[in-house]
Structure formats: C-alpha cells, structure tokens
Design brief:
The chain is of the alpha/beta class. It folds into 2 domains: 82 residues, Phosphatidylinositol 3-kinase Catalytic Subunit, Chain A, domain 1 (Ubiquitin-like (UB roll)); 195 residues, no CATH class. It contains 10 helices and 13 strands. The protein has a 6-stranded mixed sheet, with helices on one face. A 5-stranded mixed sheet has the order 7-8-10-9-13, covered by helices on one side. The longest helix is centred in the last third of the chain and has 23 residues.
C-alpha cells in the first residue's frame, strides 16, 4: 500500500492528467497520459490499492458513480478534487474465501477432541452471488451524530442495506450507491410538506428520513424501505415520468417478493396464472393517490400536507380532502352544483 500522499507518474513527457483517489482514509494521486481511459485508471488502482477492477466502485463529484470504462481520463475532475473508491482488497476477499473453503471446514471439524462425527452435507457458497452482493451494494453509512442515539440510526440504515429484498433488487438492477445517509428532519420540513428521501447524482448518495419530526422516535421500517425503493428508481430515471413509476413498481414488488421473512403471498388462480401480492397493496395505492399530490419532485419523495407525524388520522383526512376535490371537479365539468 502506498503512502497516503503518494503519486504515480508516467515515464515519458506526454501530456498528462492527474486524479486524486481516496480509500479507507488513504489518498493517492494518479498521473496518466491524457489519452488514457477509466479502464486504464482501474488497472493502476489495482496495483496501488490491491482491489480488482470488478470490485472497484468510484464516485466522482457531479458525475456520481463511474460505470463507463471507456470514459476519457480527462473527463474526471482533476486533483486536488477527490474521487471516492469503495471496495474490498483482493487479500480480504481471499481470506473470506479461505475461511469458507472445505479445507478450513475440515480443520475446524477435526481440531477438537472426542470421536469423529459423521460428515454433514457441506453448505455450498454461491461465490458469484456473493461477488454480486459485494459489487452492487451501498458504500459508507452516515448518521447524524449530533442527535440522540446515533447508534440506533446506524443500526437502522445497516438493516436496510442488508435487507434481503433490497439486496436482491440491487443485484438484479445492478444498482450501486456511494453513501447511505440519515436525513435531518429539521432541514427538510416545511409547513406544506415533508421530504422523505433524496437521491443525489443518481446514486452518489441516498438520504432517508428515519426519525419523526419531533425527534422522539423512529418511523415505520416498511415505510422507510418503500422510500428507499423510490430513491433507487432515481438511479435510472431523474424525472417522475411513466418509466420512473413503472421501474419503482418493479423494484417495490421485487423487494416484497424477495423478503421471505415478511414478504408477499402468492394468489392462486386468476387470468395471469397466479401473481404475487404484497401486504397492503390496495392501501398503498390509496395512500399514494391521497398523499402524493404531485409532491414527488426533484429526485425526492415529498409527502404533501402538514408536518405532523403522518398518523392514520392524517392520512384519512388527506384522502377525504382528495375525494372532495375530485367530486368538485366532476360537478364543475357537468355544470351542476
């Protein structure tokens, strides 16, 4: 491993471009010919940080997650602007593989005393799936340390990141998020609306509202998970158009289906040969219709209405107001009073 302030220089006098990579508290400046691409930079990163290109996740200011390896090196922000590198070293991955290898299992098995027990069927590790989980995941967790119980917020975010349904859709859609952060309710609450989630630069960072507005508790887990599904859809679509909503529904359904502990149930029969419904599907549609009000804007999930706690009574009031508004429009269009 290079020193935190070390650099890499080409041997000739060709025009160059320098980028600063940071990883796990260490920094390294790479100076490459201007004709180089992101693929060349990944190979240099592998030599310096011992992280294979397929496990490298690079996040640059304004560009977000870097995925196109044909991107010219000159398109990246020059040093001293920092590019964040996320990934496990080859040595760490090898240690995990060795720890789960049949040889290691045999050593653990025969290391004790007493009679040899009959062999049990070995649990086969799907290394491709494990590799996908390591590649398509979240980066660092960031919580608000100035608020009470930051450790609880960290546990909450890590539960979301390790949720079986979330992990499944991350791999299926090849989503990577640079950072998963806690949102401060005080900074995103007005008299008219409450922002529930934000996605910055299509996956550079996702922020989620975990706490109640009064800081006296935490919001329902499944509601926050739905917000995360919404923000993951913004990794692909910035605007709230038809394509965005179709993707959101696919993500939400995939999360519910893959969460085998609390997931959906299969409805037998029907014209589609049986489909999967998630718990409260009809209520979800009613809630979105009443509470959305066009407020899902700017890459964020904004709940319209007052800045209250979002109780059942609040939602019923909003639904009633929405129904009254629709009835009024129908009367106006028909010319009746």
């Amino acid at each position: 491993m290079e020193n935190p302030t070390s650099t890499s220089q080409p041997d000739d006098d060709t025009p160059t471009h320098s980028v600063l990579i940071t990883h796990a508290g260490k920094s390294h400046t790479f100076t490459l010919p201007q004709t180089s691409t992101l693929s060349t930079l990944r190979l240099q990163i592998q030599e310096t940080f011992s992280i294979s290109p397929e496990y490298q996740k690079l996040t640059a200011p304004k560009l977000g997650l870097l995925k196109d390896d044909t991107l010219p090196i000159t398109s990246l922000p020059p040093a001293p602007k920092k590019i964040l590198l996320i990934g496990s070293s080859n040595a760490a991955i090898k240690d995990i593989q060795l720890a789960n290898s049949p040889a290691a299992a045999s050593l653990r098995k025969f290391g004790g005393t007493g009679p040899i027990k009959p062999a049990k069927p070995a649990h086969r590790v799907d290394w491709k799936k494990e590799g996908d989980y390591a590649k398509y995941t979240f980066g660092p967790i960031r919580v608000l340390t100035h608020l009470p119980n930051p450790s609880r917020s960290e546990t909450y975010l890590r539960r979301l990141a390790s949720d079986a349904g979330i992990k499944a859709v991350m791999v299926k859609h090849k989503f990577s998020v640079g950072m998963l952060s806690e949102m401060d309710p005080a900074e995103h609450t007005t008299h008219e609306s409450r922002t529930l989630g934000l996605n910055r630069n299509k996956g550079e960072e996702i922020l989620l509202r975990l706490r109640t507005d009064a800081y006296d508790g935490y919001r329902d887990y499944k509601t926050v998970r739905k917000t995360l599904c919404h923000e993951l859809a913004h990794n692909v679509h910035g605007d709230h158009d038809r394509d965005f909503w179709e993707l959101y529904k696919v993500i939400l359904k995939g999360v519910e289906e893959a969460d085998w502990r609390h997931g959906g149930r299969t409805v037998e029969g029907g014209g589609d040969g049986g489909r999967v419904m998630w718990e409260g599907e009809e209520k979800e549609r009613e809630w979105v219709e009443a509470a959305d009000g066009g407020g899902w804007t700017g890459g964020s999930f904004v709940l319209g209405g007052s800045a209250g706690s979002g109780s059942g009574e609040d939602r019923r009031s909003m639904a009633a107001r929405a129904a009254e508004e629709r009835a009024k429009k129908m009367r106006d269009s028909s010319g009746t009073t």
